[in-house]
Design goal:
Radius of gyration of chain B: 16 Å
CATH topology of chain B: Rossmann fold
Structural class of chain B: alpha/beta
CATH topology of one domain in chain A: Phosphoribosyl-aminoimidazole Synthetase, Chain A, domain 2
CATH superfamily of chain B: Class I glutamine amidotransferase (GATase) domain
Number of helices of chain A: 26
Order of helices and strands of chain B: EHEEHEHEEEEHEEEH
Strand content of chain B: 15-25%
CATH architecture of chain B: 3-Layer(aba) Sandwich
Largest sheet of chain B: 9 strands, mixed
Largest interface: A-B, 33 and 31 residues
Oligomer: heterodimer
CATH class of one domain in chain A: Alpha Beta
CATH superfamily of one domain in chain A: PurM-like C-terminal domain
Strand order of the largest sheet of chain B: 2-1-3-4-11-10-9-6-7
CATH architecture of one domain in chain A: Alpha-Beta Complex
Number of strands of chain A: 28
Chain lengths: 732, 233
């Protein structure tokens, strides 16, 4: 069956009428089906960033240690001793709702390829997950599939999954978020880029064969979900981590030679985006002969091959006299290797199949005339402070309820399905420190890695929420003793064609940008996922909470200086930072009073920097024995987490006068840390000298948390309350 | 001690094992490719963890038919020392060099956590640095670690004292139906077994991942130190 190409088909492919008219103008004729397919995926939101590009440009992306910022497959930063860290976070939200296991698994596979395609050996995976209400039955299926998928892929490829975060909220009921991050290491003079060069050079395809899976995945990811969403399962790809493992080893083996001119993985929009982007960046043309493409099934058309999102495939431009060396390496690893084309000087992508030219598109206009939208954005209305707050329960009862609540409960059920030690370099496993710590083999360096975002803050005040996400990531890295270097962002929002959603997006970027600038913490890579909305039976749509997830990386020059969050024995517990008792949008307000109200805690970036720099220096000079940042749940939850981590107890002093107890203990004021030090008085005096507020909050010892009232909660009792949520939920 | 590590397609803990061996020998072990047909002159061959052939068909089943395995069988017959960890243990059982089989974990999920092992005998090359009954902590990471064997084989393993390690509580209590101490559901809490000549050891947990204080402890180190001493003698 030959489909006739017209505006109606273009709209089916996700192009607007205006965009289709532009396609016809560029081509000077009606495009072929394959050509229309290429335009529609390259101009999809997912590939073109047409709604977001204008705002992404405002983010700071440079620093002396940044080697490659956004625009390459992943960001690259100098970490010292001749090494670079290469990292990126990417979403696989839509596929993970439709088919949770494969959606999450291929999300991990895709981000791994983005990193090793640049020459890095992947050394750590992280993820940021948001699920719907625990009360919604499908949430359990999605958690089960997503966790199995992340584990199934990451465990098999042998990259440790060392960290991440999970939130629950009914706004994610029909639209979970699966954001996966990979960090890799390479010699900084051995970074591989994607710009093709050398007219006549062979274009080589390696990895898995091409099948009919995932056709138009990028377009699917650029639309809202309706009641037929689950019928879109054929657009979800199927992952094979075993092939990926072979591909990693084969590519790294090839990269140790000098055969590669350019390399890029085939991710979203597969062969189309990899060939178009490599040729486009290099300013050359490219000719592909699809008969040479390794195919999984017979009878595939040019359209299907160009749009397939079959996994575990890479495209390379090789030096012509090195192709046999490359072929031998891929044969050793039992992977397909095929020369499928060559570079040309035409400036066009020409696709041939069975002797026919199926596509012939000028590359410059395909890129340069790609639509960019400056969509109307409504300024978010920020709520005022919350009022009429009073604690209905005793302090100990509230604490036990909070540490067992969905957003604060132990994630061990999840972590225990991820291999966090493979590679033998994991210095701090999940839950042992505010950021995961991974040593770089054969060096004294350690990487500190975290993912962070507080969507309920972003919903109430997107600008403050955007700044807070960056600040919390910076703080988590700081709390281990590491120097924060750079971030990757994964911007998950609703439908940008709605002014209120676009307003959230613009404000969140503004907040993020400000925080990145003040904290000297540039954005070096990222991904945007829009249209995270689900149509309700009544025809309305519901958007997710705005979720600009931040993945961040820091470095320790001497990894042995890293500290964890477990309460240290026989220490003074010191509170660093100012406490006003901000309860707006707090977990306490939601879990204890059932209210999601008010403005989120204020973010003062200069204070954040001053407090953090002071704490980091105190960690590095050996004064601080343990450190934990204060985030969701406030001071008392943070103390409880320290007690649970090491089973060392603590006797607490009374709160600062003038603040209501629940506000002091559960307020979520920013820029604060808890530290264990030998001499609290000396530490506080030093802090005052540096303009950093600090006060002794208690003394560690025993195995009980003792509240100022004298009420005692054993570490074991806290742990029982903390551990129950996930196993109970998943056994339902 | 000269050692070699076999790499199959999908092996992923060969680097961890190399670090552990280098720590006790000062020498980098030789990496062997599954298609090799000869072993170099070595004292110890290690089959490391991972997902050889993606665990497709059955864990270890395809690797057991790799070209290198004929040489490893011959090495075993000559009394060579062989350590198989995790996927390496699975390969040893598939090859028939050790009895039994590793089934899917009892809770049907991948498990990645620390466990406590109890040392069942202290007169073997792999265990002599510990006292009998001693316990040590080690990480485990597997989906198919649930050891089983037919009743005759099990009786023989137990009767001849060929159980090297059992999963135990931190205080050394062994209770097979207790999922907190025997997480994968192994019969008789068996975590590692020995060949009759005690020169082949297969175990599911990863002592190679706990040989450095920086990574949380050195509980796994005695196994490797003990091997060096036993082999050098």
């Amino acid at each position: 069956m030959k489909k006739s190409v017209d505006e109606a088909l273009a709209r089916e492919f996700g192009l607007t009428s205006e965009e289709y008219a532009r396609v016809v103008a560029i081509m000077g004729r009606t495009p072929s089906l394959t050509e229309l397919g290429v335009f529609s995926v390259m101009w999809s939101e997912h590939c073109s960033y047409k709604s977001s590009r204008k705002w992404l440009k405002t983010l700071p992306t440079t620093a002396p240690w940044v080697i490659h910022g956004p625009g390459e497959n992943a960001g690259v930063v100098d970490i010292g001793e001749g090494y670079a860290a290469i990292f990126k976070m990417e979403s696989h939200n839509h596929p993970s709702f439709i088919e949770p296991y494969q959606g999450a698994a291929t999300g991990v596979g895709g981000i791994l390829r983005d990193v090793f395609t640049m020459g890095a050996r992947p050394v750590a995976n992280l993820n940021a997950l948001r699920f719907g209400s625990p009360e919604t039955p499908r949430t359990r299926q999605i958690i089960d599939g997503v966790v199995r998928g992340i584990g199934g892929y990451g465990n098999c490829v042998g990259v440790p999954t060392v960290g991440g975060e999970i939130n629950f909220h009914p706004a994610y009921d029909g639209n979970p978020l699966v954001n996966a991050m990979t960090v890799g290491i390479a010699r900084k003079d051995r970074i591989f880029l994607s710009a093709a060069a050398g007219i006549g050079n062979p274009v080589v395809y390696v990895g898995s064969r091409t099948g009919r899976d995932g056709i138009h995945g990028a377009t699917m990811s650029s639309a809202e979900f309706d009641e037929h969403a689950l019928a879109k399962r054929p657009t979800v790809q199927v992952g094979d981590p075993f092939i990926e493992k072979l591909l990693i080893e084969a590519c790294l083996e090839l990269m140790a030679t000098d055969a590669i001119v350019a390399i890029q993985d085939m991710g979203a929009a597969g062969l189309t985006s990899s060939s178009v982007e490599m040729a486009g960046k290099g300013g050359v043309g490219i000719e592909l002969d699809l008969d040479a493409v390794p195919q999984r099934e017979p009878g595939m058309t040019a359209y299907e091959m160009m749009l397939s999102e079959s996994q575990e495939r890479m495209l390379m431009v090789l030096k012509p006299d090195r192709t046999e060396i490359a072929r031998k390496i891929f044969e050793k690893w039992e992977l397909d290797f095929a020369i499928i084309g060559h570079l040309t000087d035409t400036g066009h992508i020409v696709v041939k199949h069975k002797g026919q030219v199926e596509a012939d598109i000028p590359l410059d206009p395909l890129a340069e005339q790609a639509p960019i939208y400056d969509r109307p954005a409504a300024t978010p209305v920020v709520p005022g402070p919350v009022e009429d707050i009073h604690a209905p329960l005793s302090l100990d009862a509230m604490l036990l309820k909070l540490v067992g609540s969905p957003d604060l409960a132990s994630r061990a059920w999840v972590w225990n399905q991820y291999d966090s030690t493979v590679g033998g370099q994991t210095v701090r496993r999940p839950g042992a420190a505010d950021a995961a710590i991974v040593k770089i083999e054969d060096t004294s360096l350690g990487l500190a890695l975290t993912t962070d975002c507080t969507p309920r803050y972003c919903q109430a005040d997107p600008k403050t929420g955007g700044a807070q996400a960056v600040a919390e990531a910076w703080r988590n890295i700081t709390a281990t003793g590491a120097r924060p270097l750079a971030v990757t962002d994964n911007l998950n929002f609703g439908n940008p064609e709605k002014p209120e959603i676009m307003g959230q997006f613009v404000a969140a970027i503004e907040g993020m940008g400000e925080a990145c600038r003040v904290l000297d913490f540039p954005v070096v890579s990222g991904n945007v996922s829009l249209y995270n909305e689900t149509r309700q039976p009544d025809g309305s749509t519901r958007a997710i909470l705005p979720t600009p997830a931040i993945g961040a990386l820091g470095v320790l020059e001497d990894v042995t200086k890293a500290v964890g969050l477990g309460m240290a024995e026989a220490s003074d517990l010191v509170l660093v930072g100012e406490t006003k008792g901000e309860l707006g949008q707090s977990i306490w307000l939601r879990e204890i009073l059932g209210r999601e109200e008010g403005a989120p805690p204020s973010v003062d970036l200069a204070t954040e920097k001053r407090n953090g720099d002071f704490v980091r220096n105190a960690i590095l000079d050996g004064t601080v024995r343990a450190c934990h940042d204060i985030a969701d749940g406030g001071i008392l939850v943070a103390v409880a987490e320290m007690v649970m981590a090491s089973r060392v107890g603590c006797e607490l002093e009374s709160p600062t006068s003038g603040i209501r107890p629940e506000a002091f203990w559960f307020g979520e004021d920013q820029a604060r840390y808890l530290v264990c030090v030998k001499d609290g008085a000396a530490f506080c005096a030093d802090a005052q000298k540096n303009g950093v507020p600090a006060r002794i909050l208690g003394r560690s010892g025993g195995s009980d948390l003792i509240l100022p009232s004298g009420v005692t909660i054993s570490a074991a009792r806290l742990t029982t309350a903390h551990d129950a949520f996930f196993p109970t939920l998943m056994a339902r | 001690m000269k050692s070699a590590i076999v790499v199959f397609p999908g092996t992923n803990r060969e680097r961890d094992m190399a670090i552990a061996l280098k720590r006790v020998t000062g020498k980098t072990p030789t990496m062997l490719w599954h298609r090799d047909t000869d072993l170099p002159d070595v004292d110890l061959v290690v089959l490391p963890g991972g997902f050889s052939y993606g665990d497709y068909l059955r864990c270890g089943a395809m690797a057991a038919h790799s070209p290198i395995m004929a040489a490893i069988r011959a090495f075993a017959q000559k009394g060579g020392h062989i350590l198989g960890v995790c996927n390496g243990f699975q390969i040893l059982t598939e090859t028939g060099l050790l009895p039994g089989a590793l089934l899917r974990n009892a809770n049907l999920r991948f498990l990645s956590q620390d466990c406590t092992l109890r040392v069942e005998r202290s007169d073997t090359p792999f265990t002599h640095k510990w006292e009998k009954g001693a316990t040590f902590r080690t990480p485990l990471a597997h989906g198919d670690g649930n050891f089983t064997a037919d009743s005759q084989t099990l009786a023989r393993l137990e009767g001849e004292g060929l159980v090297a390690f059992r999963y135990a509580s931190p205080t050394g209590q062994v209770q097979a139906d207790d999922t907190s101490s025997n997480p994968n559901g192994s019969v008789n809490s068996i975590a590692g077994i020995l060949s009759e000549n005690t020169r082949i050891c297969g175990m599911m947990p990863h002592p190679e991942d706990l040989v450095d204080p920086l990574m949380g402890g050195v509980d796994g180190l005695p196994l490797f130190e003990g091997l060096v001493e036993a082999i050098v003698q």
